[in-house]
Amino acid sequence: MMRVLARLRSGLAALQWRDFALAYARCPFCGPSIFVRINRDETGVRCLRCAASAVHIAMGWALSAQCLDLAQSDACEFSARGPLVAYLQRCARSLKVSEYFADLASGQMRDGVYFEDMQRLSYADASFDLITHTEVLEHVPDDTLALAELHRVLRPGGYLLFTVPLFDSENTVERAYLRDGAIEHLLAPSYHRDPLRGGEGILAFRDYGRDILARLRAVGFAAPSLYVAPQKIPWISHSRIVVIAQK
Ligand SMILES: [Zn+2]
């Protein structure tokens, strides 16, 4: 409990006592649990046992729906801590974790955490049975390069599961480009909260639409699909979507 409260410390600044609530529900990572809501924002809902957010919980349901044999899976996740990492550490045969630091090269380490640039991974071809990431791809300047790299390091038959903010539109809207090391904005810059770096947050290069599936097919994924997570999280009325692709 103390550990979870410590994790929620940054969120406590956003605590609205009149919205504070507890509810019983099932967490895909820890089973029967109590959920806490600290404000009306979706990001204010957490599993009290493992601190999983709505995004993590959708990933958890998507993972269990795939019936993957995690005990026989070498996994790769593009964050270094949090409930999804803890779950994969517990259940997968092996797990590589990494974070993104703009000033390092893939495979380098800082404070005990490996760096990986999704556009130039340090991993060998066919290294993993499962790759996961949450709310990362929209921040990668060249997502075609990144998806091709993820395809390269997956084993044949391996799964890629991830979330991005997915908009109810046919086409992805490009918001910015990286050209010769400089960012060119096509639309007003949109920054997403970044617990690792703080500040103004991290730039979203695009708002994804349903054509994200075509982007996956273009780099070689055969039948990518959108998994609609069941609405099992208290207070959250809409379903979250997880992108699933198999090599
Ligand atoms: Zn949990």
Automatic annotation (TrEMBL):
Report the GO molecular function annotations.
Answer: S-adenosylmethionine-dependent methyltransferase activity
Question: Could you confirm whether the keyword Methyltransferase appears in this record?
Answer: yes
Q: Which domain of life is it from?
A: Bacteria
Methyltransferase type domain spans which residues?
A: 97-162
* Single biological process term from Gene Ontology: methylation
Record has DNA damage as a keyword: no
Keywords annotated in UniProt: Methyltransferase, Transferase
Question: What protein does this entry describe?
Answer: Class I SAM-dependent methyltransferase
